[in-house]
Amino acid sequence: MFRFGLLIFWPLFLYASTFQDLKWKDGETYLMFLDRVGLPQELYYKIDKEDQKLTEEIRTGIAFQMLRDCNQTVEQVLIPINDELQLHLYRNSNAEYKVEAIPIISDTRRESLTIKIENSPYKDILKATGSKRIAQAFVNSFKNSLNFRRDLRKGDPLVIIYDQKYRLGKPFSMPTLLVAMIEMRGKRHFVYLNEDERYYDEKGAQVEGFLLARPVRNARVSSVFTKRRFHPVLKRYRAHLGIDYAARRGTPIMAAGSGKIIFAGRTRGYGNLIKIRHSDGYMTLYAHQKSFKRGIKRGKYVKQGQVIGYVGTTGLSTGPHLHFGLYKNGRAINPARVVRVTTKKLTGKARKSFLKVKKELDIMVNEQLASLDAPVKYEKFDPIYYIDALASRGGEHETL
Hints:
Layout lengths: L2 E6 L9 E6 L6 H8 L4 H4 L3 H6 L8 E6 L5 E7 L4 E7 L5 E7 L3 E10 L4 H9 L2 H10 L6 H4 L5 E11 L2 E15 L2 E7 L5 E2 L19 E4 L2 E6 L4 E5 L2 E4 L5 E3 L4 E9 L3 E7 L4 E11 L8 E2 L4 E5 L9 E8 L2 E3 L14 H23 L6 E3 L6 E6 L9
Helix pairs in contact: 4-5
């Protein structure tokens, strides 16, 4: 079994040890990182194929942690892969380096902001919270339904309530918007997060902003999306940040949405890979391709349904299939749950369930508005800086 441990305040480490809170460099691969910090390449080559592919999910700019001893030898490294898992590199009692995927210990806090508009929603939220992520989440929620420049007036109220994860005492990943409200010309406009993990307006109409199509026709789903799963046979945590579509070699692959190709090339784990950037912070990934369609290259704009490549088994793959990934603002999300139906409205039991959620969230918004004449109300978690890590099976090595 795994054991988890927390150690409060990094100065409590051994006095000669050095703790570093770092950012993942742009363009740096996992193998390049190992070489740069003096760790053995076997921390890549001796792990299984699925974990090797996970190393390609490390995002530019992600915060990771490193502990060195008095001789500046790396003792441990924690690198987040997604919201649920992180890579744990460590040196055991035999001075051998090991790596494993372990759960991230995070603390989720409910936070809120209530203000009157002075400049614009984005600028005012950024000024109050210091968070571009929160400001962007609010603006994106109304992007396709409201015109802030035309209808917004100075003094109009704004409320946003959201859940924010904290890792090592710092905000981690995108906030989860629960409800957003803005009043313009005396009318209140809302966006609610429903139990189906999709967003709806006050009338129960869906407001998701991305249209996703199936990238391979008539293909069988051979592996589903999961951020964290404890494998009952392997006895370790696994993640699969996408959907695998099994199909014959050479089957056409289509762009799931219109956008700009930001990568088209060969990678070690994902083989022939294409990444497409879409609107509203979305990005799609198409891996293990046999080849790309002629003319497909970085910088090219493609339309939804346009053929971009062909199913293959390049990279770390055991058979012909497409690994399809979907990301929003750099965070992997389940492609099966993102469907835009602009005319869809909830009915029957689904509508009753939504109205119950709406009622609860409306109460929260009204409570925030009741205190609007007081100074800017921003309820934020007071962070405690801690290091989360895990002791290996049987306590073989010490934790950060």
